[in-house]
């Protein structure tokens, strides 16, 4: 019996030993994992805000949770997208995966999800004797190179001739210890953007709306972003230096690393660049609640406002002028002769060897050449050329020979104003008015965005974009409610004449209106207008803006003979700022309809606006359409 | 808040001249996190395209050679000067002709010139502009090698700056 036992025992030992030798640590690890999972459950970590921020969990409209991340590699559990707790337990499990089981070219989960690792470690205090810590070379080098000591929210403002760009764009700059102060160009910028797969403008818009582009984070040297926005598109940048501790910044950078591997469906409404930049800030400091205040959508200007509203979050705002703003600053300082010379240089009519040019003082020569180089830099970026040196070398060389210490400019001129000082993007209007027959009340709402009568701080002062502006009138005597106007989309881009960039103004307007020149019981028409024109502002900061348009027009209504009229109009008008808060507008037009119901008539308008605050103004409007007059007093509230 | 504003922008795209497509400027990027070049066999194509919230709709080409990117997804330290000069070339030569500017001082920092010597650096490149930018086909690489030439010859900058790459980290 005994020998048998012995043999059996030996066999048992032999058979078992290798297994035990192998599985002993496994068992210990499994035990520790179970322990950690137990603790995590007890502490309810799956419900913690930080965990939800890290995994991008959001509440579903009808209960439950869903992550905004759409790349499945972002999750460790197959249920991870919708089950925060399962994901947390699976994440803990993944940290115990032996290195030998990781496929070639893949990172260990500890290295793929370092922000999760860091937070879970803080919560559960991993026993490093019982959990093997993996070396993450690439990650370490990444963190070491970025070495964040600061973060800066960067806002790109609008660019010329493009009212849509008033919405702006935001990205986050990671300020590194290595770059140090004064070397901001060498920092990196984290940018969230859609990855478009089409050049077709229509598909582009459509796919963006329905979320069929992938949105991804990318990280770029900040100077490439400066080149792109400042120089190529000529948009001013506003940089808001934010206050975070180094530990918070470290978490943010680790989180950014995790995001590199995934993508999100890009929705222009909600999950856009600004939304995701805000979420990075919340990950850094979970006490910040930035996204909560956005109900429907996130507009970049609003994100600047919300960040500015946080006590002590913004240290400083820095203006980084676009290349054309730099040029215009120089033009502002020029005397007429210098302006003329710049003009003829642009036209290619001025030789640097000519006496006209050589006769100038060194300072004047430097000023003209500096402005010309800005112009030439901007122009060269709008086209492709195989020349390496984009600014004419003769100009560069001439400038290099001038010992002008300073071109006497002193400081910078701000051509755009801080976006957070602008009015809110939604507007509610309450008005009272009178026409020839009876008094009425007006109610209007629009979700976006800016009209030329509104206070223009923070906006392009030459453009307007109005979307879904619905106005109702209640006529007090006839006791009727009528749809007075519905501006589905109305864009005006006034491009004041600039001798260097002669661009025409244009406008387009689609919506429902009242046939105001007719007495048809406030009947409605559907109308579309497109026009081009010229406008003029004596100088960049002049309070006067003159404009003129010639429009094509079509109106459709059951109350018109042949149900329609097609024609056009010619309009002239002026805006004038009497004070910062008081603006008036005068306009007159001659309308001609030749197809359908034909008619010719004049309209004239006088509007004045007084801004009571950033978000509140009062307006008085006197309008005449053919022989019909009306006057309206209204209060506009922006939010 | 402004829920429909995006539609407005999107809709306005049909009307706006989409001239931004035809641009000659390329941005650069190495990828991010596990998307980094080289982390996967067969080196994945890296995205360097941007879409504004404005639907500004520019798709930028990629000008970063993969050789400039480290396996951590950032610019290799040994390539920093080269990439910086290439990406900011026009700004840089403009500032060289003027003898001062942010891009120029950043380049000086990449040569380890202390902030106190940046003015001197500016004055030197302005003075030597003719030889730094020899003709209108001078490339950024040629510019840098000329610059290094001049730096080593300069009595003060030769000491305060350091053209050796190993000096960077």
From TrEMBL, chain A:
Residues 1-23 form the signal peptide. Residues 417-630 form the DUF7840 domain. Residues 140-309 form the Lnb N-terminal periplasmic domain. Keywords: Signal. The keyword Signal applies. InterPro entries: DUF7840, DUF7843, Lnb_N. Residues 44-123 form the DUF7843 domain. The keyword Signal applies. This is Uncharacterized protein.
UniProtKB/TrEMBL annotation, chain B:
The keyword Signal applies. InterPro entries: DUF3015. Residues 1-22 form the signal peptide. Keywords: Signal. This is DUF3015 domain-containing protein. The lineage of its organism: Bacteria, Pseudomonadati, Pseudomonadota, Betaproteobacteria, Nitrosomonadales.
């Amino acid at each position: 019996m005994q020998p048998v036992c012995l043999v059996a025992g030996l066999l048992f030992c032999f058979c078992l030993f290798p297994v035990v030798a192998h599985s002993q640590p496994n068992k210990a690890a499994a035990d520790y994992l179970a322990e950690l999972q137990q603790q995590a459950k007890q502490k309810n970590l799956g419900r913690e805000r930080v965990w939800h921020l890290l995994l991008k969990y959001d509440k579903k409209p009808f209960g439950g949770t869903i992550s905004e991340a759409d790349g499945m590699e972002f999750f460790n559990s197959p249920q991870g997208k919708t089950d925060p707790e399962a994901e947390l337990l699976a994440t803990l499990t993944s940290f115990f995966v032996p290195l030998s089981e990781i496929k070639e070219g893949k990172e260990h989960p500890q290295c793929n999800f370092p922000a999760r690792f860091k937070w879970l470690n803080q919560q559960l205090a991993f026993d490093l004797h019982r959990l093997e810590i993996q070396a993450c070379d690439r990650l370490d080098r990444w963190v070491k190179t970025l070495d964040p000591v600061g973060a800066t929210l960067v806002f790109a403002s609008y660019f010329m001739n493009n009212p849509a760009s008033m919405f702006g764009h935001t990205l986050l700059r990671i300020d590194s210890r290595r770059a140090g102060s004064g070397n901001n160009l060498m920092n990196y910028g984290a940018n969230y953007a859609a990855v478009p797969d089409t050049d077709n403008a229509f598909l582009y818009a459509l796919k963006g709306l329905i979320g069929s582009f992938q949105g991804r984070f990318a990280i770029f040297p900040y100077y490439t972003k400066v080149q792109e926005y400042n120089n190529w598109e000529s948009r001013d940048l506003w940089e808001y230096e934010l206050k975070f501790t180094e530990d918070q910044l470290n978490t943010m950078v680790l989180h950014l690393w995790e995001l590199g591997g995934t993508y999100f469906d890009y929705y222009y409404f909600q999950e856009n660049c600004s939304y995701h930049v805000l979420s990075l800030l919340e990950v850094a400091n979970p006490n910040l609640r930035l996204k909560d205040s956005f109900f429907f959508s996130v507009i970049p200007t609003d994100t600047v406002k919300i960040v500015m509203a946080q006590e002590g979050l913004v240290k400083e705002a820095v203006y980084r002028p676009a290349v054309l703003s730099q040029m215009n600053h120089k033009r502002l300082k020029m005397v007429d002769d210098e302006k003329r010379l710049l003009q003829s240089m642009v036209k290619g009519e001025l030789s640097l060897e000519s006496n006209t040019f050589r006769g100038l003082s060194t300072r004047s020569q430097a000023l003209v050449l500096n402005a010309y180089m800005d112009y030439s830099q901007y122009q060269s970026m709008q086209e492709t050329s195989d020349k390496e040196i984009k600014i004419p070398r003769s100009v560069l060389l001439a400038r290099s020979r001038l010992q002008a210490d300073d071109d006497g400019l002193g400081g910078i001129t701000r051509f755009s104003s801080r976006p957070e000082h602008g009015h809110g993007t939604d507007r509610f209007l309450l008005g009272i008015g009178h026409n020839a027959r009876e008094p009425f009340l007006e109610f209007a709402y629009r979700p976006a965005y800016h009209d030329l009568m509104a206070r223009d701080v923070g906006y392009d002062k030459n453009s307007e974009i109005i979307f879904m502006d619905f106005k109702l009138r209640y006529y007090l005597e006839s006791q009727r409610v009528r749809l007075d106007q519905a501006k589905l989309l109305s864009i005006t881009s006034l491009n004041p004449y600039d001798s260097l960039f002669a661009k025409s103004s244009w406008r387009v307007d689609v919506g429902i209106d009242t046939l105001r020149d007719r007495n048809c019981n406030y009947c409605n028409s559907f109308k579309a207008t497109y026009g081009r024109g010229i406008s003029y502002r004596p100088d960049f900061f002049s309070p006067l803006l003159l404009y003129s348009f010639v429009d094509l027009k079509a109106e459709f209504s059951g109350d018109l003979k042949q149900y329609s009229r097609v024609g056009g109009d010619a309009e002239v008008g002026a805006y004038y700022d009497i004070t910062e808060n008081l603006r008036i507008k005068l306009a007159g037009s001659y309308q001609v309809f030749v197809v359908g119901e034909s008619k010719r008539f004049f309209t004239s308008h006088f509007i004045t606006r007084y801004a009571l605050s950033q978000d509140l103004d009062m307006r008085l409007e006197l309008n005449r359409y053919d022989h019909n007059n009306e006057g309206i007093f209204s209060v506009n509230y922006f939010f | 808040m402004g829920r429909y504003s995006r539609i407005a922008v999107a809709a306005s795209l049909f009307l706006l001249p989409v001239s931004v497509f035809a641009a000659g400027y390329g941005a650069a990027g190495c990828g991010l996190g596990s998307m980094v070049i080289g982390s996967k066999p067969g080196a994945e194509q890296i995205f360097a395209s941007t879409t504004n919230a404005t639907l500004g709709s520019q798709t930028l080409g990629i000008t970063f050679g993969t050789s400039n990117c480290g396996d951590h997804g950032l610019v290799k330290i040994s390539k920093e000067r080269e990439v910086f000069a290439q990406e900011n070339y026009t700004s840089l030569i403009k500032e060289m002709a003027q003898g001062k500017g942010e891009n120029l001082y950043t380049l000086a920092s990449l040569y380890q010139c202390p902030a106190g010597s940046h003015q001197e650096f500016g004055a030197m490149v302005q003075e030597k502009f003719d030889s730094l930018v020899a003709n209108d086909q001078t490339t950024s690489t040629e510019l840098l090698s000329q610059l290094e030439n001049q730096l080593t010859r300069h009595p003060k900058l030769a000491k305060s700056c350091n053209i050796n790459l190993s000096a960077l980290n």
